[in-house]
């Protein structure tokens, strides 16, 4: 409104001045016309009184001059007119002489005020009319004053109308603000009222839909979080979460029970809680290597407990790298394993003497003359089964020995092809009966490995025995050996039925045999592969079974540390 008054006031002043100029032009035309009529009528009255009367009637100043000399002026007494200065240089007079009509706005020294002058040539001289600028200023001041007085009423009216019109708008905005505040505070059930035809209907529908979606997602997340919390708390294994700085962040009740007596607090390090340097070093190693994406295992004794730990990195929803430590209490399992191992060792040891006696008496009976032929056949069966029982007992004793020695086995350089030949010699008769032949392909740089002669021969004998028993008649068993860096890799492949999928790990358990193998009555005690596994692990090697991509059968692949030559025979501990 103030800007309007300022702009409009300037426009009014300009318009009033323009109108005053036009008025002055009309007045001078009128005076000129009256002057001509007066001369035509040959009035005898004086010119100055006549001009004074016309000026008074029109409310303007009228001046008549010839060659710049003033002859009459309506605002100057007649006696003073002859003393007035020369007006030939006045701007309006100069312009009138050049263009017939002249206009000027200036201060009058005679009247001491601002006037608007309009001059015109008339026969015999120049006629000039002056209109006071005070009239313009007065009219302008009156109009601006009216505008200023109307401005408060206009503002009040605008505020009233705006208040009425904005009530629905502010009500809607308040509802939106309250809905947003409710969503921020977790009250997702609040909804906005939607009025038909409301300008905010689309926005209100969107906000209500967003609140509904958020409520649904929050419920799903809460249900999922509750399930995860229940699963996390119900685990028998202890679970601990460590952040990227090595500080403890969370744990489950099972972990707290395993470290009972210690103070579990968020922000502490593992070393402060468990006082186990090896565990802290393992966690630090995984934290310091951001590219590490594997699983690390650690077993140790903690107080009266035997614990087994698995450390693995992961990324949370915020992509922050953290470490999860899964701890399993192996105390009872180790105790049961020790009881089982002692039982097997004791039973196996006690069985050796009766088996030796049975074999001795059976061989004595076999050497006796005059026995019926059927007796000789029965005695052969007895000797064969005694031999099988003896091998089982020997394997059990060897397994027990490997478990008790915990991998501390003396190793030296062993010639693998010789161990392979000696192992096959004990199976040559069974292979010849089935028409199975052996193909050897051992690279020269893979001939020597770090092991013990008896252990390597046992591995080859069990793998070859397994391959011969499961190979079809007339098939081939392939033995390969290559060197990869500091490790020699050997493969024993057969072309039988192969290992059923999902049982690749279980076949190395003692006494385990696949169902189809048990049903086929193919013999075997189920100890051979377990013995291979423990023997190789004791020497720092490993064994696995894989299905070949180019055909049927199975490939048993095992590794051992390579020895450069036969001279590398110094005894070492694996």
Structure commentary:
The chain is an alpha+beta fold and 574 residues long. It contains 15 helices and 18 strands. A five-stranded antiparallel β-sheet has the order 2-1-5-4-3. A five-stranded antiparallel β-sheet has the order 7-6-10-9-8, with helices on both faces. The longest helix has 52 residues, at 133-184.
Could you tell me the number of beta strands? Answer: 18
Helix content estimate = 40-55%
- Please report the number of helical segments: 15
Compute the separation of the termini in Å.
98 Å
Global structural class: alpha+beta
The average pLDDT score comes to 78
Low-confidence stretches: 569-574
C-alpha Rg, in Å? 60 Å
Name the shape in a single word: rod-shaped
Percent range for β-strand residues: 15-25%
Strand order of the largest sheet: 2-1-5-4-3
- Let me know the largest β-sheet: 5 strands, antiparallel
Q: What's the quick description here?
A:
By secondary structure, the protein is an alpha+beta fold. The chain has helices at 2-41, 47-58, 91-99, 133-184, 201-234, 253-258, 270-274, 277-288, 331-367, 373-405, 416-425, 428-434, 453-470, 515-519, 528-538; strands spanning 61-66, 69-73, 101-108, 113-122, 125-132, 238-242, 248-251, 296-302, 305-315, 321-329, 410-415, 437-442, 448-451, 476-484, 487-494, 542-546, 554-561, 572-573.
